[in-house]
Structure formats: C-alpha cells, structure tokens
Amino acid sequence: MFQYIVMRVMKGGLTFLAAVSITFLIVRLMPGDPTTAFISDSMTPQDVQALNTSLGLDKPLPEQYALFLRNLAHFELGQSFFYKQPVGDIIAPRLGWTLLLIGTSLLITLLIGIPLGVHSARHKGKGVDQAVSTMIVLGISIFIPLLAFVLVYVFSLELGLTPVGGAFAPDVEDSELISDVARHMILPTVTLVVVNLAQIVLYTRSSMLDVLKEDYIRTARAKGVDDRGVIWGHALRNAMIPTVTVTGLMLGKMVAGAVLTETVFSWPGVGSMIYEAVQKQDFPLLQGAFIVLAFSVILMTLVTDLVVAWLDPRIKLHAESTR
Amino acid sequence: MSALLEIRGLKKYFGLKRHLFQRRTRFVHALDGIDLDLMEGETLGVVGESGSGKSTLGRTIVRLEEPSAGSIRYLGRDVSALRGADAQAFRARIQMVFQDPYASLNPRLSVGHALAEPMLVHRKVAGRRAARQAVGALLGQVGLRPEMASSYPFAFSGGQRQRIGIARALALEPKILICDEAVSALDVSVQSQILNLFNQLKKALGLTYLFITHDLSVVRYVSDRVMVMYLGQVVELAPRDAFFARRLHPYTRALISAAPLVSTAPREARIILQGEIPNAIDPPSGCRFHTRCPNVMDACRRVEPQLREIEAGHHVRCHLYAAGQ
Amino acid sequence: MATRRSFLKLGLAVTAAAASGSAMAQSKAGKSVIFRVGLLGDVQTLNFWASNDINVAVLQEAVMPRYGYMDADGNVKSRLIRQIDVKEGARTFIVHVTPGLKWHDGVPFSADDVIFTGEYLVKHKLFQNTRFSNVASARKIDNLTVEYQLKAPQVGFADVMLFWVAPMPKHRWETVADPMTVSDDPRGVVGLGPYKLSEWKKGQHYIANRNPDWPAALGTPAIDRVVYRVYKDENSIVLALRTGEIDATSRQFLPSMAGQFRKKPEFRIFEIPSPGYSYIGFNGKKSEFAADLAVRKAIAHCVDRPKIVKLALEGNGVPMHGSVSPVHKDFVKSKIEYPPYDLDAAKKLLRDAGYADTDGDGIVEKNGRKLSIKMMYEGSRNDYDKSVRIIKEDARKAGIDLVLEPVDRQVYIDRQSKTKEYEMLFVQWGAIVIIYDTFYNIYGKDSFLNYSGFHDPDLEKWAKNAKESGSVAESVKPMDEAQKVVVNQIPTLAVWVPNLIFVNSARFDGYLPYPSSNNGTITLSSLLNIKPRK
Amino acid sequence: MREKNFVESFTKHRLGMIGLAGIVIVIALGAFGPLIVTYPVGYNEATPLAAPDREHWLGTDGLGLGLIAEIVWGARTSLFISFTAVAVATCIGVPLGLVSGYFKGRIGGLIDSVIEIAMTIPALPLMILISAISGPSMGTVAVVIGLFSWPTLSRIVRNSTLKLASMPFIEAAIVLGIPTRTIMFKHILLNAAGPALVDLTIIMATAVLTEAGLSYLGLGDPNAWSWGGILQNAFRAGQHFHAWWLIVFPSLAIMFFVVSFNLLGLGINETLNPKRD
Q1: pLDDT at A33
Q2: Is it the case that residue D39 has pLDDT exceeding 70?
Q3: Is C254–D238 a contact, with Cβ atoms under 8 angstroms apart?
Q4: Number of domains into which chain D is organized
C-alpha cells in the first residue's frame, strides 16, 4: 500500500509538471510574438524591461523554462495586468470559494447519484430505470448558462426565494454569515449537481449491474442474505470503485462547469475570475488560474485514487500481478 | 525421413512484473530446455496438463513468443536469425490451427476476406479475382462450399468455423501445421470429422503436424510419435505404439490411467496424482515430478534426471531408468 | 489586504463567531438606512486620481467628490469650493474653499490641498492634469483662499475645475513618489465626502458609512450606508434590480431593457438627455487609409444617423449631424454639418482618389492594398455594437472594409489613451460640459483628449481662441470656425446623442438625475437628497 | 462477439433511431437550409426585435435579422465544429490508443501515462487560455476542442485493443504474416470501432456545448453565426428578458443537436452491448 501511495504521488507530480509545461509551451509557441501575452497595453518600456528580465524572455527557451519552473516553485505566478497585483494574491482567496462550491456539489451529487444508480440498477428495464436513462441523456445535454438563467428566473425573480448572485450579502452580520452563504450557494450548487449527476448515476448503475452478476453476490443471495443486505452490504462497496474512479476523472469537467456557473451567478471564485480575465485579456491571471486549477484537480484526483485503493483490496496486492 | 524442424535447448521464461522496491525480476519457466526433432511427414502428439508448457512450445515455434534461449532450425536454418522477406517466407512454411473456433476468426471480416488476405500479403495470388478463385479452392479442400466465402463467421457452426480456420492455415501452403488443442472445443461427433479432415489433408498435401492436446485418445488416433511434457520439460518421447504399450515414466502412467478409455491394457489400479502441478516460478529441485511421484526415491529430490533413450526412439527422463538398471 | 481576508473570514466565522473589528459591527443593519448600488465589474482602483474608470467615478461621488457639480439646468455649481471669483478678463481666479470640511482622518481641508492637487496632477501627469495646463501660478492667500494666475484668458477655467477635479489630501500624497502604482493604500482610503469607505472586498463589494464630520451646511444625507455590489455581467445587475437586491445602478439602459421595469410601481425610471455623444475616431498614425481625407470623407457619407439611432438606440436619442452636440444650443445655430449620408457620393470620392475594385470582391484597392480599416470599440456595449455593425454594412456597399474589433473596456481605454494601438474607434464621450473649453482639449495639438494626435493649424488656432475667450459670447465665432475645419477634415465623426435611461428602486424618493455624467442618479446631489419612502 | 446484423438491431432501438433522425435533420439543415434562407448580414431597418409571426417564423434580432437564418447558418457552424473536433480527436486518439494497447510494454505504458495525464488536466481553462491568446476564430475553436477530446477516445480504444490483441484471431493474423500496421488499423480497429463510435458521438455533442460555452465567455468567432454566438449576443444585450425567442430557439437548437448525438451514442452502445439478462 505504501509503495502504491508513493507511486501515485509521483504520478500526480508528473501530471502537474506536464500541465504547467503545456501552459509554458502554449504561451511561448503560439503564433505571433509570445511576449505580447505578458505585456499589457498599459505597461511602460521600463515595466516591459523588468518583465523581460524576470521571465527571461530574451533568453533561449530552455532557460526560460527553468526560470518559469523556479518562479513557480516560489509561487510566483506573475503580475495581473488589470489588478496590478501578484496573480497568487488575487487567486488565493478565490480558490477557497471555488473549492467550497465544487466540493459541496460533488458531495450532493454523490449522495443523490449513488442511491439513484443503485435503485435504477435494481429495477433495470422498468419505468424508474428508463426515467433515469432519459435524465442522464438530458443531464449531459444541458447548456449551463441556460439552466442557470432558468433557475434564477424562476427561483430568484418570480418566487424571490434565492439571491441572484454573489456568495454572501455585503452587509450581513458575522453570525448570519454561514446561513447567508448557504442561501447564496443553493442555485450554483443545484446547477452543478444537475449537470454532473448523470455521470455518477450512469457509472453506479452500470458497475452495480456488473457486480450483481458476479458469483459471490449470487451465493450471498442463495444463502438467504436478504436482498437489501446484498445490495447495500456486498454489492455497493464493490460498485463504488468505478464510481469513485470516475469521480476523480470528472473533476476536470466539474471545473469547466464551475467556470460557467460561477460567471452566471457572480460567485467570487476562480471560475468567474477567469471570465473577467478573458474580458480584460489578462493573460498572466489566466495562466495562473489554470495552473492553480490544474493543481487542485490533480490533488483531488490523487485523493480519489487513494480512496479507490482503500476500497479495492486488489490494488494493495497490485504488485504481485502476473502478466 | 529427415528432420524438418530441429529444436535444441529451447527455453522460454516469462518475466514477472517487478514492483518498485524489488531488486530482481522473477521468471516463470514455461519451457526449460526442450530438444526435439520434428520429422518430415510425421504427426507428433504433444500431451501434458495445463501449465506443462506444451502450448508455449507451439507458440514459440510459430514465433508468437520469442525464445529466451536455444535454437529452432527449419531445414537447417536458424529461424530466429531470419529477417524481412526470409522471415515472411518462414511464416508461410509453419502455420497454426487454434483451439477456439469462435475466437480465432475476426468477426468483422468475411470468410473470403480472411482467407484471401494472407495470400495477397504473401503474393501467393495476383489480384482479387485470382484470390477469389483460390479461396473457393481452399474452402473446397476443407469440405465447405465456395459460395460461403461471402458470409461472416457468425453464420457458421463451430465445426464449420474450425474448417475455415484450417483453410486459412492452409492458404499459405505450409509444410508444418501446429494444431493447438485444435479439436478440444468441439463436440465429440464433430471432433472425429475434423480429425479425419486432418488425416486426409496430411495425405493429400504431405503435411507435418505438431498436435498439441491434453486428450490422449486424440493423440492415439492421429499421432505417429507422442511426447509428454511436465513443467516445461520433455519427460517421455516415443513412437505411438511403444508409448502406449510401455509408458515408462510414472507421470505418463498416471496420465493414461486417468483416461481409462484410452487404455487398452487390462484394468489396473488408477493412479491418482497427489496435489496440483507445482509453481513454475520456483520449480522443484531434482526431478520436477518428485513432489507428486508415487515412485519417488531419495535421488529424485536431489539430482535432476536427464532425458535418455532407453530403447530405439523411446526417450524418458526418470531415475527409474538410469543407466545400468 | 481585504481581499486576502475574504475567504479566511468565512473560516473564521465557522470556527468561532468572533466579532470582527470592521466598521459594520458598529451600526445594526436593521435600523440604519442602507442604499445599495450595483456595479458592473470591479472597481479598478481606490486611487481615484489614477483612473477614469466608470466604477471608480461612481464610488468617488460618495467618498471623494469633485469640487462642484452640474445642476438640472446644466449649470456648473460649486460645493467643496464655496465660490470662484473671475477677474482680469478671465486671467485671474480666486478660489474660496468651503469652510468646515475635514478629511476622513480628521485633518482640515485647506487651500494647501487645493494648490497641491493641481501641482501634483500636472507633475505626475494624472488624469485631469490638463485642466491646469493654462495655469501660470497658484498662490495661497489664506488658509481658505487660493489665487490662480493663467497664462492666457480662459473663461471656462472655473467651471472645468469645479466639474472635473477632485481634491487630493496633501498630507497623504506628498510622500508618494509614483501615484500610478498605488491602487489600495494600506493605511486606508482617505476622502472628503459625506461617506467614508469603511470596508471592501475586491471583486465583491464596497461599503461606505456616513461621515459624521460632513458639514450640515452642505446637506445631511438620510442614508446611513451606501453598499456597492460588484456584478460580473449586465444581466445579473438587471436581475438584482428586479429582485430588490440593489436600489440603483450606474448602468444606463436601452429602452427594450428598461421596458421590463415600466408599469411596475416598485421602480422609477429617469430619462435624461446626455451631455455626451458618440463618435468615430480616426488614427492616421496607424492606418494609411485613416490618414487619407478622401477615405474619411467617404466613411462620413456612409453614416446613416437616423437609421442608427432607430436600430442601435432603439430610437432613444437624436442624430448628431455636426461636431457639437445639439445640447449646446448657442454653438449649433450656424448648422455646420458633416457630409450627409450618400453612398454614391462616397463611391465617387473614392474613385476620384484613385481607389478601384480590381478583383471584384466589392472592396476597393489602391496601390495593391485593400481599403480595410480596423474599428475598435467596447464590445460589451450593445448600442456601440449595433451602431458599428450598421456603419460597417453601409461602408461595405461603398467599397470600404471595416473590420470590427470588439474589446473589453479596460483594454479599450489602454489602447485608446496609452498605446494608441488602433486604426479607428467608436466611442461615446461621457460628458462634454463646457464645449468652448473642451474643443481645444479634443483637437488641440498634444491635448489630452486628442488621442490620435491629429493636428491642423487652423483648427488648433480657432479652438485655442475659443478656449481663451474672455466670455462665452466671445467664443461663439471661433467655435464656428473650428467646427468648419472639423467637418471638412473629419478627425472625428460624431454619430448620435443618446438619451440616458436609468432605473431606480421606488423604495427611495428624491433622486436628482442631473445630466452630470454617466453616473446617472448616483451623484452626490442625489445621495444627499434621497430618503426612504414612507 | 454477437455480430448479427448491427444495422438491423440498431433500427430496433427506438431512442437511437430518434437520435439518428435528429442528426439527419441537422445535417440537412446545414446542407440545404442555406439554399432557402440567405446569409444573415447587415441589418433590416423595418423589423428590429420582431416577435415570431407569419413573416418571421422565429422572430428577429436587434438589427432586424431573421433568427431562422441565423439558426440555419449556425447549424453549419455547429456541424463544422463538431466534425472538425471529431476528426482531430480521432487522428490523435485512435492511433495512440491502438499503439498503447497493442504494444503493451514500455511504449504502451508511456502512452497510457500520457493519456491519463491528458485526462486529468482540466481542459476548459486551458482551452480558454489558448483561445484568448490566439484570438477568436471558428477554426481555432474547433481544433482546440478536438485537441482536448482525444484522451477518452484513446482510453476506450486502448482498452478494446488490450482485450483484442490477445484474441486468437489477432494471433492468427500474426502467424499468417499480416503486417502489424494492417493488424492494428484493420483487424483491431474494425472490432474496436463500436465503443469508439459511441465516444465519437459524445465528443460531437460535447464539442457543440463547449463552443457555446466559449462563445458565452466571449471567445467565439464574431464573424460567424453560431448558436452559442446568437445566445451570447442576446445575453450580452440583455434581450433575453423581453425577446424570449432569441434565447429559446438557439437553446432548443443546441439541445436538439446535443440530445440527438447523445441518443445516437446510447443506441449504438446498447446495440453493441445488449445487457438483457
């Protein structure tokens, strides 16, 4: 198990290195002058000179790369064009909000999705199952801004139940902060849950179907363990494995959903910041946002993989597999 | 009769996946020093339990596996040294018939396509029309109708599919046919039809067979010589009649007694082998069979016996038949 | 620093309901009167003098207002300055500071601050610095009085200073070497207005509480706190207004968008003629075609103003045929107008200038180069977007290819005023208040609003004459001459004057929608006057 | 391998056929629609923001242009984007999947790691970065979407290839001396095509959603009509409050397209793997 963790962490590090290297290459190798991505229209020649030195733009590519990695190791992500502040300082407080939103949505998605998937697997081919299938197709077909707009229109505008946007009201008392944040989170969370639910249900359902076919489940049923016990006790633990694995792989997509959702709901996270950075052509901020998001996703994927390892005894014995 | 194929000291080890903190790679000894001459025109039956290495032997000969050590010579030329066009030519000389008639045909290729493709690749025929004719002839040869060429594998029964598999192997006009459990997946009634087909083809085309099977009755029916393998080694090799009459090695005896229908000898006590075939990663010391042998002796545990010719053409690997006994 | 706290604060509240030291704890939300304002996008900086960002201007009204303001009749009035005396044929101006004003840190506002402001703006080339370009000397007479001597007469000097300039606290800024780099003074924001900026979370909100030191003589506001909330997109703002999350926004509405608020008793709609107008600017330094008078004239023939007003403004504005807005009645009597909409005339002009369509794609060429010009504009403005698309279509019919370049506001500002990286632009002046003074700022050589650096000696001469008139009546004649040059040379091409529509919550009464700028109803005068409705 | 006739079985899958019909409609719209409605260009003074009526079936936008023409021409864009994305993803994903599945050893492991890394990296922020730097253009958007769609396809092809490579019919082909290239790109690919096809439909559906998302963020091509672009124009102008047709119809078009492709994928998947116990 220990060596599995070591391997997995090494792989995560490698993935992160690949992600930042891609960013480095994209910015440097794009057609046109790569330096323009870092030079804002409002910079003076002195600013540009200072930037050239700090990024090594006048040096050969490998040296620039080394410099880039060194800056990264010191958490130096550059200077935002618009805010004229270090990118890290702008992103740091926003990252928490994004993780809060994604984490909550993920938790709710799993809490709804897994039982729904199990239920639909148990009643395969029946009305419930078909309704779930239809929901899955619709779920992965939704355009987030539209869904968000409809939600706001109905719940905020017509019914007046939820706030339109933001994370909390500006003049809220500290003691009411948590409930206020919760109120603001409802619609963005619902949006993300709706678009991500389909995947979880789909995977739980199909892995549950596979597990239910396996011998030991039949044996357990034959032994007279009651159906409920078989499903929730034996089968679910095994069915969870692909579900958790796919959760890890979904994180990247959840981030994509978060960019659009946060934008529509003015959620003060990294996603809405990306939208602003696009508008303002703030490339250092965009690059920083990507690096931070990539890091978060890789870290969370690592965690889900470790959860899978914990759920799946086979991985602990991973080393001994023959060809 | 001359040796078409000479195998000397053939070894095949499979490396186990090594994990992070393990120093040494460990190996499965699938073939551990095989010496064998395959004579032109003969049918050599290879028997053994699963895990004995008999399938690996066949797969190594057709180069599905690269040997770890030793040599395979075809008509005196070292096969492993062949490259490019020579290797292609060798491919054509030795073909294989697979066990599972369902899995050995590509479900997405029509029968005609599957048969024509190798001929076109090896330029046995010029152009599609000639290929179509050749396919028709091949199908006829294995007892199928030429118009079946346009059908896909799913339309055929198991026996028919095996005939197609044989036809495909024959497409390149090989000298040697390796049959790896070629009939064991078929119904008994179909088995004999296919075995008869093999015998007919042998006569008509002058083929040489290496017939790998666990089924002694099949071996008895088709073979000229019989070879028994245990844990990657040859333990007995003899002409068919001598083999069934004398069965020198204790393992051979156990095998035959476990298949009573094959035995023509008077009823004798069935020899039940103790335990399972040992792990081929760390084979037992001395005689590999000593852990299960009813006749085990002290020497068996320490000294590895050699394959010896006890009488003309009858080789056996056992301390019971040590020199001077 | 406030930014870093924003998420931490949540965690803090979770672990222990520790009372934060912020000002919000002082007054209980339920009892105080709160006015909420929606901002589109973040406030660029809290250094008010280093930005001409629209959101900065909105915040400034409450926290750091300008010396004066414009009343409902379009006259400039004083506030932080009590009075300005004009002497010696508009060469000497005596400025009397309003007594009793204190900076938010308690230091009294004095003549020193007034003098410092002008000198500092000029020294560091901050925005509005050219308002002082004609100043020869500034002398302190006493603690509340300053005397300005001008190099040449300038009748508009007083109004311009009152309307455009906000004073700087000398004691805070005299030590700052490079003000352009300061965005968020760690010592806090010190203003002079009736509200103090007490708490802010960048990208989320800004809170201003009432300043108890604000002199009652200038009006005591009924609102205890102004909350500015940042929204990421225009629709969120509209929604927030509809749900009552905010009471007002600085954003102007097109009629179709304002329509949803009409006939609803919870809202009040104000329609104000704008003191600004939209125009096309040419940058001859970046495009050989924009430098060609024939091309500029041809493009002028392609602008169908009534049609653009109808489609782009949804009829909510007036076509502007000359170079002075019809708002300034005294200066448009001579009807000096740009070339009229006439596509055939445009084609003929181009033909005569040697342009011809040789490859049959409908776009003319000269010397092997296609007549193609890039037109930059602020992409989030729907009225701009539609206007340029209509002009592009008509220009295309005349054989001119206008390539649209929608950009973000900030990018737009940088490229227009700093790097000058544009060939043509479409934009709207927020407010042209004192036209006879401003004309020189727009067309004078090296003037700060002359972004493209266009220079014509006659125009320069007449505009300067107009600015340096001893009286308004004297300036009419040189203005007419200057206008003639503009419509002939076309350095800029005016298109329309909008009506501004603002929507406010009817929870409050007493909005004073002065045509002051784009701030709409969120002017200081309004803030001092509005009260919750009973 | 339950081969039976795939086409025949598929035609019995109701949802799959509905999806196929939907796609045929979109393709027909993209191919023949432009023969009926002219390219929406310029402005129409007479009818800005007209609600749907007899003359303007789907209403008009702020410049008086017919929405129906914009949607028809937008269908072309959506088709262009999704087919380009699929082509790019296929060109990268299929060979990588085949090679990594077929050569199990070091090369396979290496490619598999690359696939896994590519799957983990959050694609949308990276796409935004690329589009923002390179400037908005339909071609860039299409290629970028394709560049980030291949990993799942690769993984699926790899998994099929891993299973297929040890199948006796592949070994038979090796013994018969069929060149490795032919084995991979014909013998294996023919059998791996089914699951890959399912993923291709998903890629096409996702591509259209992604384009709409990028357009919504202001990274679409301002010089081409796309459904996402129409929506973005309407949202930007705040017209969705009073001109509902500007939101409803392009959204319906996106949903129709995406649901059609997803249904097709569902149909193919269930026809290939009938899980009827």
Answers
A1: 58
A2: yes
A3: yes
A4: 1
What domain range is A217 assigned to? 2-321
Per-residue confidence (pLDDT) for residue C481, from 0 to 100: 95
Beta partners for residue A86, in sequence order: A79
| Among candidates A157, A165, A181 on the partner chain, residue whose Cβ is nearest the Cβ of C231 | A165
What's the gap in Å between the CA of C191 and the closest CA on chain A?
21
- Residues B219 and B226: beta-carbon distance below 8 Å: yes
Weakest-pLDDT range from B48-52, C282-286, C354-358 = B48-52
Band the pLDDT of A318: cuts 50, 70, 90: very low
- D277 belongs to a structural domain: no
**Each residue of A15-73: pLDDT tens digit?**
899 888 888 888 777 665 556 666 666 667 777 777 777 777 777 888 888 888 888 88
Write down which chains contact chain C via at least 3 CB pairs under 8 A: A, D
Q: Per-residue DSSP letters for A213-253?
A: HSHHHHHHHHTT--HHHIIIIIIHHHHHHHHHHHHHHHHHH
Our count of domains for chain A comes to: 1
Got the DSSP string for B69-136?
EEEEEETTEEGGG--HHHHHHHHHHEEEE-S-TTTSS-TTS-HHHHHHHHHHHTTSSSHHHHHHHHHH
Distance from CA of C385 to the nearest CA of D (A): 9
The parent domain of residue D189 ranges over 2-272
Name chain B contacts of A318, Cβ cutoff 8 Å. Answer: 19
Q: CB distance from A50 to chain C under 8 Å?
A: no
Q: Using an 8 Å CB-CB cutoff, list chain D residues near C410.
A: none
CATH of domain C277-497: 3.10.105.10
In whole angstroms, what is the distance from residue B62 CA to residue B95 CA?
A: 7
**Mean pLDDT score of chain C:** 87
Residue A64's CATH number: 1.10.3720.10
How would residue B264 be classed by pLDDT, with cut points 50, 70 and 90? Answer: low
Angstrom distance (rounded) from CA B173 to CA C227: 91
Q: Which two tokens stand for residue A195?
A: 């678009």
Reported as a single tens digit per residue, the pLDDT across D161-196 is 998 988 899 999 999 999 999 999 999 998 888 889
CA gap A205, A194 in Å, rounded: 17
B96 with D167: Cβ contact below 8 A = no
A96 touches chain C (CB under 8 A): yes
Let me know if residue D174 belongs to a domain.
yes
The mean per-residue pLDDT over the stretch C487-500 comes to 94
Identity of the residue in A92, A152, A268 whose CB atom sits nearest the CB atom of C4:
A92
C20-29, C124-133, C351-360: range with highest mean pLDDT = C351-360
Residues 17-36, chain A, touching C (beta carbon < 8 A): none
For residue D248, being part of any structural domain is answered with yes
What residue ranges define each of the domains in chain B, with the CATH number in brackets? 3-108+152-322 (3.40.50.300)
C380: closest chain D residue by CA = D236
Chain B neighbors (3+ CB pairs < 8 Å)? A, D
Task: Name which of C18, C207, C239 is nearest A156 (Cβ-Cβ).
Answer: C239
> Residue D61 has which token pair?
């936008």
Nearest residue of B to residue A6, measured between CA atoms? B20
Q: Which residues of A touch B28 (CB under 8 A)?
A: 322
Give me the half-sphere count of Cα atoms (radius 13 Å) on the Cβ side of residue D23: 22
User: D258 with D212: CB under 8 angstroms?
Assistant: no
Q: What per-residue confidence (pLDDT) applies to D136?
A: 76
User: Looking at residue B43, what is its pLDDT?
Assistant: 94
CATH of the domain at D47: 1.10.3720.10
- Span of B233-247, B311-325, C416-430, D167-181 with lowest mean pLDDT: B311-325
**Contact at CB, D190 and B98, closer than 8 angstroms:** no
